[in-house]
């Protein structure tokens, strides 16, 4: 059974927006990628902005799967789970040959100053995204695995913000060095294992 044109258009939007960004992704290009008539877009979506929000939500659902697969793995210590998440994402970025980053980060740069709708959605995404990291960090602190100087929520915010910055540098350099550097430094300083 064929998926609906709406689904085809959303899937195409994710691909095209990754390649061209929000501004560069035209409705025409998205429909062409989906093999859908131009009118189908306006039948399913009120605006490109509303469409982009749905694409972003779809992308974030995939991110949450990676978060759960790493942070819910109780066979690892909390510190190891944090490291595991960064490894999972690094593997995905390697699979894309280092030229595709994070849509959340890309949209944050490109749309936050232009779209109130997307800025508010991105703000909510970051808030939801950091919560499981803060819980994992708090668990690591309770176990004495990492230092308790800083608040877990602040550390989660630092981790995600810094990681997004490393991904941006990775896209510029087209290689893993910024990600490797970030992981090495953060786990030998901020998340250094207590002896």
From TrEMBL:
Alphabetically ordered keywords of this record: DNA-binding, Transcription, Transcription regulation
Gene3D superfamilies linked: Tetracycline Repressor, domain 2 (1.10.357.10)
A molecular function GO annotation: DNA binding
Stored PROSITE patterns: HTH_TETR_2 (PS50977)
DNA-binding residues (ranges): 26-45
Domain HTH tetR-type per the UniProt entry, residue ranges: 3-63
Protein name as it appears in the record: TetR/AcrR family transcriptional regulator
Gene source species: Occallatibacter riparius
């Amino acid at each position: 059974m064929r998926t609906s044109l709406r689904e085809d258009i959303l899937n195409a939007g994710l691909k095209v927006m990754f390649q061209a960004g929000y501004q560069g992704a035209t409705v025409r290009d998205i429909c062409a990628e989906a093999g859908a008539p131009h009118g189908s877009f306006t039948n399913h979506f009120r605006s490109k902005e509303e469409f982009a929000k749905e694409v972003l939500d779809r992308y974030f659902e995939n991110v949450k799967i990676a978060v759960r697969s790493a942070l819910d793995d109780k066979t690892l210590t909390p510190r190891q789970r944090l490291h595991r998440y960064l490894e999972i994402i690094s593997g995905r970025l390697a699979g894309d040959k280092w030229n595709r980053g994070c849509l959340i980060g890309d949209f944050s740069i490109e749309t936050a100053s232009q779209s109130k709708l997307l800025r508010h959605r991105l703000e909510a995404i970051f808030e939801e995204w950091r919560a499981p990291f803060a819980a994992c960090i708090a668990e690591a602190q309770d176990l004495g695995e990492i230092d308790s100087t800083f608040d877990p929520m602040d550390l989660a915010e630092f981790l995600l913000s810094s990681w997004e910055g490393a991904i941006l540098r990775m896209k510029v350099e087209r290689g893993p060095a910024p990600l490797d550097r970030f992981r090495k430094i953060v786990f030998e300083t901020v998340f250094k294992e207590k002896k």
